[in-house]
Amino acid sequence: MIEKDLIEIYKDNTFLLKTETDDLWFSLNNPLDKVHYKNKFAILTAWNPNNKPTSDTENQEANEMLRIDLKEYTILDSMGKYKEHQEVSYLVYDISFEDTLALGVKYKQYSVFYNDTNELSYIECSSQRILVSKKL
Hints:
By secondary structure, the protein is an alpha+beta fold. It contains three helices and eight strands. An eight-stranded antiparallel sheet has the order 2-1-4-5-3-6-7-8, sandwiched between helices. The model has no long low-confidence stretch (mean pLDDT about 95).
């Protein structure tokens, strides 16, 4: 039942996409216009490894290590939000599916968010299984 509950959360979890002119929030249930998904991207965080609440200091330190790992990519600061819970994240452009999963595993994330330009998906890091997705 836990996975089913997570899938419902994933559908409503919102992410911040910053553009030159706007801060846009989107979710699987409420995606943006397709033009915003023309480039591949992932949304990654190092917060709360293994889905365990972790102190803000530890989360910030882990996210800074993730930022260092992302130095070869174009990244934007982002945010993942579900109800009152928020996690600082990075929107990472032109990252491969494989690199996205490898970083998710490295930072002990249960899942990652990935846009392959045709579909938005949450992927379980350990199994590489798509948990929930939406065609664009």
